[in-house]
């Protein structure tokens, strides 16, 4: 090359080799990051599926329109198969051997305004025009189901309250 000495020519050749090596490193790094992103996404999906499976089970649901007898009120708890999907808490009637039957009813996570943990293993989901009250076999199972529901719904901590803790304001 005119105007270049042997040292300059050698440096030019090395820099193009370094450029290819640097590009190979960049490509390899991008491929590795892409693989890691896919792996993280797969783990997150597996975690979500595991969480959704943990939300499945029989809970009791407080029936609407309880019977009033003078100063007494009859409360009716109905056993229901309750589970979460990626967009809702769902429940269905069950048979005597606890198999889900009938149409599933959905409480969309986007409609839930607040989740309250009550006493005696009960929790309540507040939506615009009503409350859904569910009862778990134990207070511990209630707390677990409640936290799972909150995680699945993506509700912020300010939307979750407990009667055993300081009540939080509505979202």
Automatic annotation (TrEMBL):
This is PH domain-containing protein. Residues 1-21 are annotated as: Disordered. It comes from the Eukaryota. It comes from Chrysochromulina tobinii.
């Amino acid at each position: 090359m005119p105007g270049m000495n042997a040292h300059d020519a050698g440096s030019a050749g090395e820099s193009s080799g370094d450029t290819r090596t640097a590009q190979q490193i960049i490509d390899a790094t991008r491929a590795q990051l892409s693989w890691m992103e896919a792996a993280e996404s797969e783990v997150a999906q597996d975690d979500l599926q595991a969480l959704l499976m943990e939300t499945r089970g029989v809970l009791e649901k407080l029936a609407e329109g309880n019977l009033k007898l003078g100063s007494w009120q009859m409360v009716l708890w109905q056993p229901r198969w309750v589970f979460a999907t990626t967009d809702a808490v769902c429940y269905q009637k069950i048979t005597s051997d606890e198999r889900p039957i009938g149409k599933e009813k959905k409480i969309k996570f986007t409609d839930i305004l607040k989740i309250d943990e009550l006493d005696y293993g009960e929790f309540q989901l507040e939506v615009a025009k009503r409350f859904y009250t569910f009862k778990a076999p134990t207070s511990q199972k209630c707390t677990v189901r409640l936290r799972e529901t909150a995680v699945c719904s993506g509700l912020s901590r300010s939307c979750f309250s407990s009667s055993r803790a300081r009540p939080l304001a509505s979202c």
